[in-house]
Structure formats: C-alpha cells, structure tokens
Amino acid sequence: MSKCIIMCAGEFEPLQIEKEEGDFVIAADNGLSYLLELGILPDIVIGDYDSLSPEGQRTLRELEETQPERVVHLPVEKDDTDTMAAVREGLARGYDTFYLYAALGGRLDHTLANIQTLAFIRSKGAKGYILSADSMLFVLSNETREFSKGFRGGFSLFSLGDRCRGVTIRGMKYELEDAEITNTFPIGVSNYIPGDQKASVTIREGMALAYVSWG
Length: 215
Hints:
By secondary structure, the chain is α/β, with parallel strands linked by helices.
C-alpha cells in the first residue's frame, strides 16, 4: 500500500528509505537538505524555511523557478508545525500510512510535538510511524498490533491520555492481561520481545505510545 514519507528537520542519520511506486515524499523545511543527501528529490517541500541549509536554499530556489507547484510556503508565525502541515497535506491527498524520519532529537519541544503529531494521525484513522536507524514509535488506539515470530527488540508502552484500559501484552518478557496503565506512572517501560513466538499488544480503550528498539 502506498505511503506518505515525511522527512522532518530533527537529528538526521543517513539511512535507507524504501520508496516504492505510489509513495509520496514530503520535505518539511530542512528535511529537504536531508533528502538531497540521500539522493531523493521530494514531491513537494513544505515549511517556513527558517532552518534551511545553503544547499537546501539553492534547491528550493531552483524548484520555485522550474516547478513552483512543488513548493509550499508557510508563515513563520503559525499554529501548525512544519511536520503537522506536511501530515495534513498527506491526509488531504488520501494517504493513510505515514513514515516520519528525522523526527527525534534536537529540540525536545519539537520531538514532543512530533509525538503528538503521531497521535493526531491516529485520531484521523490513519497510521503513523517515527523511524530511525534503531527504533520506531507509533500510537495505538482501541486496537491490537502484532509482531511476527522472529522479531526481537525492546518495547515500551506509555499512556498518552489519563489512562488506557484493557491493556494486554502477550509474547513479551513481561505480560499483561486486561490491565490499566496511566500517564502518571511509567509501568510500561523496558519490556522485551524475545522473538520465540508471535507477540502482540492490545489497547481496548484509550491511546498509547509504543516505542520499539532493535540492534
């Protein structure tokens, strides 16, 4: 299924991005510079461009001259972050799966804003993932997510609202059955998926952030 790939402007680490036919690539502000480093020209660029590198500025000017329809200018003073604006663009184009890169690190408030953007994506009925070289974050809401047998890695779960009910974790080092977790006690941190069987996490009611690490 086609997905919307968004390169944000957080800490960048060169990594392979699997772009398939039908995928739509958006650069959020200085995410343009990161995509150029990977040899990828985005379908559109969105931002106020207050953090754009010199190379990114040159490419932006070229796009404005030759393909202005691929450039979206945002005001510096606005309600949406550049990443949120990129997500809205992807949703408007009908995408329901979002991969966000370079969305962590740098300013802590931007990292938290990107995590909240994952919650926004899920609230719209779509699925979003923040991806790095060794980790993945995603939001669950009234659903079950599974991990196939053979996958090994760390797993942590945090309630994004006051509480999550009906929390069931199976196939991990620490399991739960129809439990409740709150946003005032990090009981879900530092679990482990051993990979010897299929694992799963269920949130019957509420919204939670999952953090998966590997490597």
